[in-house]
Amino acid sequence: MKVANLKHRQKVIWLTIAYALVLGSVLYSGFHERFPGSVMLWNCFPPTLSFILIATALGKSRRRIAVGFGLSTAVVALLFFGFWLFTPLDMDPHSSTTTVAFIYAPLLSIALGTIVSGLTWLASRSPGRVTTVIVAVQPNPKYETSNNH
């Protein structure tokens, strides 16, 4: 029992570290661009939602769905941060275009997370059908024709 508790605690610690890194990147860009507090809270919403979903799903059967949502939202948040950090999108570093991009980033993040978690749910619902399709495509050596006449 103690080993399982230790493994659960380690997963929560790694999850918290990942959440802090993603949230730090979101907040750094927000503070640098001097976004209003509402925009910064809006950008913190998808990573926080992902953290809550994954933390509550640890050790449960729906863990894959939550992880799919969480990874998708984290990837989108980090991609927007990377684009913001490494590409000069405009001449004015505090333009309204940057604000608009960070307003739509959480929407894209939540949409992608929902799609990935839905696909994960569909894949977990029908494991027998997937293996049947894979087996049906494989050639059967019993019915192979030989060209040795």
Index terms:
single chain, mainly alpha
Short description:
The chain has 149 residues and is mainly alpha-helical.
Beta-strand residue percentage:
under 5%
What structural category arises from helix and sheet content?
Answer: mainly alpha
Counted beta strands? 0
Unreliable spans = 130-136
Helix coverage percent of residues?
Answer: over 70%
Strand count, sense and barrel status of the largest sheet are:
none
CA radius of gyration: 22 Å
By DSSP (H or I, 4+ residues per run), the number of helices equals 5
- Write down the secondary-structure element order: HHHHH
Shape: globular
List the SSEs and their pairings.
Elements: H1 2-32, H2 37-57, H3 63-86, H4 96-125, H5 127-137
Helix pairs in contact: 1-2, 1-3, 2-3, 2-4, 3-4
